[in-house]
Amino acid sequence: MDDSQRVATRPGAALAVLAGAQFTVMLATSIVNVALPQIRAGVGLSDSGTTWVVNAYGLAFGVLLLAGGRAADLWGRRRVLLVGTAVFVVSSLAAGLAASPAALIAARAAQGVGAAVIAPSALALVMSLFPPGPARGRALGVWGAVSGAGAAAGVLLGGALTEVWGWPWIFHVTAAGAFLVLVAVALHIPRVPAVDAGRFDLAGTLTVTLALTAAVWGLTTARVSGWTDARVLGVLALTAVLLVAFALVERRHRAPLVPPRLFAGGQVVAGNVLMALLGSVWIALFFFLPLYQQQVLGSGPLATGLGQLPLAAANMLGSTLSPHVARRVGAGAAVAGALLVEAGGLLWLSRISPDGGYVADVLGPSVLIGLGLGAAFVQLTALSVGGAPPADAGVAGGLVNTTRQVGGAVGLAVLATLAGSRTADVATHLPRVEALTAGYRLAFGVSAAVIAGAALLALLSLRRTAAPDRRAHDRDRRAPAPDRRAHDRDRRAPAPDHPPHTDDR
Fold it and tell me: In angstroms, rounded to a whole number, what is the distance separating the alpha carbons of residues 416 and 288?
């Protein structure tokens, strides 16, 4: 039995391994958040250095996802996944052993590089191992569940490990988990040739990486220095120039980093636009909600992490139910409904009180947000990657993760600016806790408006893109049954001289 046949007999094991890889990536995104005060004291970080413990990972992760996805398509998704996971293991150990700010920030950046390789290659393998239909829907439900659970578990695990053993253990435990994933990939994911024999687009990779780096740096700096700061304006202008250069490079390259055929259908475009809007609120939610719990409600790191469990559980439930709902009402209606549920939770959260409590102000909205977020994430991932040609599944996975990360950077920068301005405006005549609450209310209210707008956009755009798929499905159902005698002749026909090409899609 060859490897491709072996994985077909054990799809559950393969899915568990790939979901574990995604869980590890999402865990590392949020595990440092509640431990930042202890990390700052332990390593001697400045204010800007503390920020870069978070940003170094997110920046490297976000800007290299396209390159990671393209590398997976060109050089083999299993091979690239193994390399990325190995980089992640080593960099996580280095972060836990870091004794200086520079060493810690460099290790976090290397973690982000490994994550940028892991995420698109693992997603491409999921899409190729499970064909379109209920099996893929269930697999993506699992994928969405572990994505949301990983982000929430990072907050919980980070608080628990920091309080019990100290901050280095958040990196040691992450390294141990990634090592287990590395071994499992080697054992359970098949060896098969690469999908694409083209050349790697180095010029396109450099220009888009520099453009995204400049964009994220400019948006991050704008949160502190303001949108009219000369450095911010200069870097954002440089971003525009680099994006134009990237477009020109892609037009001339024979094997571009982002092939134009990726956008031949409307699903990939619509899915990525909606994922950017979802990401703009997703990352900001996990930034503002823990701050409200700690700075206003007075929760400690561990209690804050435990407070994320209902959101994580609801996220997993929404991810699991999403494929079933989509099969009944269609992808467009499923996405719009999920986004409206999330918008309702965010609107509820915009009514938080400075003298409230977790049960009264956080629990109910968290459940609604988790349900909507999980369901929308699964459907938008399926649209963005499933709508691409199979040979481009890696770069499609990188693209949808990039739009989520860049959307998150833009959303967090804008919402943090709005919240900070609102807090500063009312701080002159209100106590600090009430001023902070006013800023958080505004951030959650604007987030609700963004997601409600995304729900309307989903109804308008996905109705058009889903129609051809439904017509094709109806044609298939009305097609006459194949001739049984012809089928028997095909079975008795001799095999071709050369076996069909296999790939690792």
Answer: 9
**Same domain flag for 245 and 384:** no
301-307-313 Cα angle (round to 5): 135
Q: What is the CATH number of the domain that holds 72?
A: 1.20.1250.20
Residues 6+ apart with CB under 8 A from 156: 302, 305, 306, 308, 309
Say if 490 falls within a structural domain.
no
Residue 298 has phi, psi (to 5 degrees) of: 80, 20
Q: How many CB atoms lie within 10 A of CB 100?
A: 11
Q: Does residue 472 share a domain with residue 395?
A: yes
Cβ atoms within 10 Å, residue 31: 26
Q: What share of the chain is helix, strand, coil (3-state, %, to 5)?
A: 85, 0, 15
22 in Cβ contact with 146 (< 8 Å) = yes
Q: Do 191 and 219 share a structural domain? A: no
Residues 183 and 210 placed together within one structural domain of the fold? no
CA dist 108 and 45 (Å) reads 14
pTM of the predicted model as reported, rounded to 2 decimal places: 0.76
DSSP string, 294-331: IIIS---HHHHHHTTHHHHHHHHHHHHHHHHHHHHH-H
DSSP for 229-287, written as a single string? -HHHHHHHHHHHHHHHHHHHHHHH-SS-SS-GGGGSSHHHHHHHHHHHHHHHHHHHHHH
Q: Are residues 175 and 212 in the same domain?
A: no
Return the ∠ at Cα 114 (arms to 110 and 120), rounded to 5°.
Answer: 145
Same domain membership, residue 245 and residue 116: no
494 lies in a domain?
Answer: no
- Tally of structural domains, the chain: 3
pLDDT per position as a tens digit, 40-98: 888 887 766 777 787 788 888 878 888 888 888 888 888 999 999 999 999 999 999 99
In a domain, 491, yes or no: no
Q: What is the pLDDT of residues 352-382, one digit of tens each?
A: 999 888 998 999 999 999 999 989 988 898 8
Evaluate whether residue 378 is within a structural domain.
yes
Number of neighbours of residue 306 by Cβ within 10 angstroms: 16
Domain C-terminal end among 254, 272, 292: 254
Contacts 24+ apart (CB under 8 A), 13-18: 13/188, 14/125, 14/129, 14/188, 14/189, 15/126, 15/129, 15/130, 15/139, 15/142, 16/184, 17/181, 17/184, 17/185, 17/188, 17/189, 18/122, 18/123, 18/125, 18/126, 18/143, 18/189
Residue 394 structural domain: 264-476
Low-confidence residues of the chain, pLDDT below 70?
Answer: 1-9, 47-48, 192-198, 265, 463-505
